[in-house]
Amino acid sequence: MKVALSTRGLAGLLLALALAALTLLSAGAPRAAAETSVSTIAAALRESPVYVDPAASAQLSQADAHALQKKIEGADKPVFVAVLPAGYPTENLFTDLRTATGVTGLYAIRLGDRFDARADSSVLPAAAVRNLVTGVRGESDAAAQLNDFTDRALANMGGSAPTGWGSPDGGGGVSTAGLVTAGVLVAVGGAGAYTLVRRNRRRHAQEQGAALERLRVVVDEDITAFGEELDRLDFHPAEPGADDAMRGDYEHALDAYEKAKSYMADATRPEDVRPVTEVLEDGRFALARLAARRAGEPLPERRPPCFFDPRHGPSVADAAWTPPGGAARQVPVCAADRTRLEDGRDPVVREVDTDYGRRPYWEAGPAYGPWAGGYFGGGLLPGLLVGTMLGGLMATPSYASDYGSGYGDFGGGYEGGDVSGADFDPGSFGDFGGGGDFGGGGDFGGGF
pTM value? Predict the structure, then answer.
């Protein structure tokens, strides 16, 4: 049977079809005008360390994003990277993202051609984040900038990756976000809390073991160098002109050498290295006294070792030195390095191996805190290291729980990669300079 439509009925039908088509188009089209919600970004970061907004896909290719993701996951560090379009709202962005993600870590955002980062202090102090951001802010290529920032951050930050990364999430199963939420709820009870503590302890033990092995290489070099100094001195207790004071200095140095080897053999944690370098520093001063007595010279003043390399022996003076990107300070120097600085040359710096090549010890990671603390003592070290990566890391509340105090006493707290939810210091994240001005500085002295 044919149904005849009136003109009015046909117009209504066409209008209804047009509205339905518009609804389908708006539902399936990319979100161009409306930005992706912070909750969506946070959910993605709980699953993977790198999120690229569809509207910002031209900034970072899928292949580059995947390579960056693998790098972060392979390093087992809590680095979160988001690439967002230039017009994305910036007010409270870092704080809101950190709250929604709920995981302690380092958060980096590339927004258009601008870049900044924030971190929980247990992972990386604000000064270190600021220095890292400043170092890459001039790079225009997003892939190069994000990779450079990540490489430098991974070499210096603490913590481990969240357990949610890399977890399977089948279509009919429970999502990782759901598991995280359930885990937090269970953790409120006794069984969940015990599981979380046990996991963190196992993670810390693994990190400390790796740090100790890296330190062992450096300390063995120190012990070997001290033994070579003993040999070069070529002192014999019965030699002509030797007196009890000389023999006492020599025995003191020999005892220090044997103690250093014994202490290092018994070391099980990075903080066990501090007594080793303490006794080496004491032994080197005994050698300096012995050398002065044999030469008939005045006994040396008790001074800390050379800041640039403690193997240079006791310092002879303080000299002005400015680390890259830092403020000038007075550091103890040996005679040779004092001359180099006076001539406008670079001092001979103690470099150590890291995952990213040779670096000065003060830029090589938190495990070197006990090593430096043994040489320079608690009262002197903060002033020497202020503004350096190691100095910033040693000032974080969680430093003592991982590497010993180095200097001072610190409290504990959540570690990198832990699920803390909204329990974090918002002052470490701040807004974008007040009122969402991307580029205003906020609490971080520059950047967004």
Answer: 0.50
